[in-house]
Amino acid sequence: MDRGILRQTLIGLICSLMVIDCGFHEGWSTPTIPKFNDEDPLSATSDEVAWMVNLMYVGVAIGSLIPFVLMNSIGRKGTLLVTTIPKVASWLFIGLATSTHYIFAGRVLAGIGCGVTYAVMPMYLGEISSKRTRGPLGTLTAVLINVGILLIYTIGLWISRYTMAMIGMCAPLLFLLAFAWLPESSVFLTRKNKLIPAERILRWTLGKENVEEEFEEVKRIVAIEDKCSKTNLGEMFKHAFTKAQNRRAFRIAMIVLSGLSLTGAAPILVYQSYIFNEAGFEISTNTSIILTGIAIVVSGCICVMLVRFTGKRMLLLIAAPICVLSLATIAIFFQLQSGDHDVSRFKWVPTVFVVIYVLGFGLGLNPIPLAYIGEIFVYEAKVPAAMFSALYYALSSIAVVKFYQVSQEVYGTFVPLWTFTAITFLIWVLIYLFVPETEGKTLEQIQLQLQNKKLLSAT
């Protein structure tokens, strides 16, 4: 195998430790929350449980803004190394917590670490990789987050909160030890006018001596970055919303991000143990949770394999109705159950259709939105777009989790599920009407598509 590909693969594997750790934090609530007031010495009210989930999203919003301050001063590598501090601290707070307030602090720190990772890791991998490995390394994040979720489901169900935290802490520590020996991005070094080290790193990562063409491309990227860095944030936001193509890009971003956050995945995955217990199916709750973890990993892998052939838009249009039908079926079950109808023969319905829902969500609504965000904005609008996307995702996820907790307690499980069914159906319609296909198109072709209203509506 080519030396460059081997080295880039090695870098990708080391970076995967931080991404898997994000999956640990994303999935932590599911096996842990049912243990409060039972196996775990800590007790927690339903409101406190909801905040344990939501405060991570608050941290993600904060963390996604930090790279804009750090990246240009200490580099991509330096920013990722610093990110291990809140990651390790979060596990210490969570594992050693003697009150819910320490867990709250740990969840915010976890979110900050994940927010920085989500923002910087794809950029770092994109800048050290060649054209041949950029695609596979780019899809690594979505798949490995799901792997982390499955691992924490599998391990966390059988061990204490303290043991889980100590195991989780190993990932950022191993990353710190290994990543310290890896090179900085050649783009950052070129921007700092360290041209000789930048060219040397290009030769090492690409595994060849003649990197003149690639180095010229790096210089062009740096020239564009320098031009944009002279524009203040206010002007960036003004530019982002005054052009029609940017407004259309933000509309697309809102639709696909709504599919990620407003369709109920976060509360369904977090509270799935309560859903399974309420249904009373014979299969154990732990087995059902592991099945959903396997489903999200499998569907994510299928998405990676299919997206080049089907396109991103088609996967969204396939995934949304799967989620609609699954949510509606589960809602019907719980509405009949709440009305004292005999549903004893159908106790399997919530388990089976939650797994089907997760398969649909993982096939399109989960992995595809971030790919769109990276493609539809011109370079000058990427900073406002990244800030908007992070804040919208965080705030909408917080609202959805809190809505589920309150409406489920007051009205019953079927009410939030019917609400998510209606929202998902609406998003399906909006995807069909307003979201174009971008797969297999250059960034210039995508921008031309966004400029031409007729061309946009034709896709």
From TrEMBL:
Keywords: Cell membrane, Glycoprotein, Membrane, Sugar transport, Transmembrane, Transmembrane helix, Transport. The keyword Transmembrane applies. It comes from the Eukaryota. It is a multi-pass membrane protein. The chain crosses the membrane at residues 9-29, 49-71, 78-98, 104-125, 137-159, 165-182, 252-276, 288-307, 314-336, 348-373, 385-405, 417-435. One of its GO terms (cellular component) is plasma membrane. It is found in: Cell membrane. It holds the Pfam family Sugar_tr. GO terms for molecular function: transmembrane transporter activity. Residues 1-439 form the Major facilitator superfamily (MFS) profile domain. This is Facilitated trehalose transporter Tret1-like. It comes from Dinoponera quadriceps (South American ant). The gene is LOC106750924.
